[in-house]
Amino acid sequence: MELEKNAALIIIDQQKGILHPRLGRRNNPRAEDRMLELLAHWRRSGRPIIHVQHLSRSQDSVFWPQQSGVEFQERFQPLPGEQLIQKQVPDAFCSTGLEARLRESGIEQLIIVGVATHNSVESTARTAGNLGFDAWVVEDACFTFDKPDFFGKARSAEDVHGMSLGNLHGEYATVVSTAQILMAD
């Protein structure tokens, strides 16, 4: 496992709304610490950083553009020179120009972190893999929430997270930890 010199860090939906209590119980309480660790490492190394912001089409969403939940959390505020991708669906590639930007920059390796594991992280990683990118999902720098399955059975955030990572690993992406990423550099 080797980290490319131009590997892009993709930070998904680190907006104020994701902290709203109505979203329920979550896993990985230290996920933001891991994301910030990776963000600091990327900034020091000068590698590309892409911040993904969700602008929901649904007025009842925590990411509805007409309220403060859509704004980036202060600790994840993009700096000058860092890229911003705005999306309206979970997949950061859908109608955003992300693929073209990556191809134009010669970026093939993507390190994906953020929220929610089973939603925007998984859909973005699936597309990245399908498009032929070398996608890595950092399991301890993502989190999700308790969620019932299709049959109505309550599933813990840990179960939802684990299943989502299981869906991705080996087929669409490689699932790794923050420590593995930092050691690969």
Explain this structure.
With 185 residues, the protein is of the alpha/beta class. The protein has helices at 31-45, 98-104, 117-130, 157-168, 178-183, and strands at 8-12, 49-54, 83-87, 109-115, 134-143, 147-148, 154-155, 174-176. The longest helix is centred in the N-terminal third of the chain and has 15 residues, at 31-45. Helix 1 (31-45) links the parallel strand 1 and strand 2. The protein is 29% helix and 22% strand. The relative contact order is 0.21. Helix 3 packs parallel to helix 4 (157-168).
Outline the fold blueprint.
Elements: E1 8-12, H1 31-45, E2 49-54, E3 83-87, H2 98-104, E4 109-115, H3 117-130, E5 134-143, E6 147-148, E7 154-155, H4 157-168, E8 174-176, H5 178-183
Parallel strand pairs: 1-2, 1-4, 2-3, 4-5, 5-8
Antiparallel strand pairs: 6-7
Helix pairs in contact: 3-4
